[in-house]
Amino acid sequence: KAGDEGQAKVVEIKGFTGTQDAHSAQALRWSAAVREALKRGGVPADVKKAAGVGSKFTASRVDAVIAAVNSILGAYEKHPDAFRASGILPEDMETGRRLLVSLNAADLVQETAKAKRTQSTAARHSLRKRVEAAVDRIRGAGMLHFHAKPAVTARFAALVPGKGGGATKPAEPMQPKEN
Fold first, then answer.
1. For residue 16, what pLDDT is reported?
2. Which among 150, 153, 159, 177 is placed 20 to 30 Å from 144, CA to CA?
3. 3-state secondary structure at position 68
4. Are 38 and 88 in contact (CB under 8 A)?
């Protein structure tokens, strides 16, 4: 059952990735369209540079797409007339702001889900280590207490394979003493 839950979490996180990818693709298309409009609109070189026209960015990385949208929005704040002269309307910039918000939200949701999964894995590993340490203590105490009874000692030794100077095979089950 634990494996099914883990698989469900992986599917859930991949679902978040799909959502993030969809938002990223929309923002990427919007950024490319705005950059193309600026390129064809005859705006000054400094405005193009501020908006990232001609610069390369990795479309597969969400942070790069966010940076591209931010550079366009920042350039618009400084040069709104140049954008309008290229046919880019304030409504187009509002679309960019909405895309940026949705992309940031999708990124946050995915990163939160990944962090929760990582924390869950760390908690399981911590629990396993505590259980193993308890078994080690029980093993040591049992071997000490029953040192005079080799069959019982062997059973305690077998609790942790590979400990105690070589591989030990499990002891035969103890038979009740006959009277």
1. 47
2. 177
3. helix
4. yes
Do the Cβ atoms of 37 and 93 come closer than 8 Å?
no
Q: How far apart are CA 33 and CA 55, in angstroms?
A: 14
Check whether 176 has a pLDDT greater than 80: no
Distance in angstroms between the alpha carbons of the first and the last residue of the chain = 47
Closest by CA position to 62, among listed 108, 118, 114, 116: 108
137's tokens: 């203590």
What would the two tokens of residue 147 be? 């040192």
- Give the integer Cα–Cα distance in Å for 100 and 109: 14
- What are the residue ranges of helices labelled H in the chain? 2-40, 45-51, 62-78, 80-85, 90-145, 150-157
Residue 152 contacts residue 174 (beta carbons within 8 Å): yes
Are residues 121 and 9 in contact, defined by beta-carbon separation less than 8 angstroms? no
CA distance 22 to 2: 30
pLDDT band at 108 (very low <50, low <70, confident <90, very high): confident
Residue 37 neighbours by CB distance under 10 Å? 17
Report the pLDDT value the prediction gives residue 5, as an integer from 0 to 100.
54
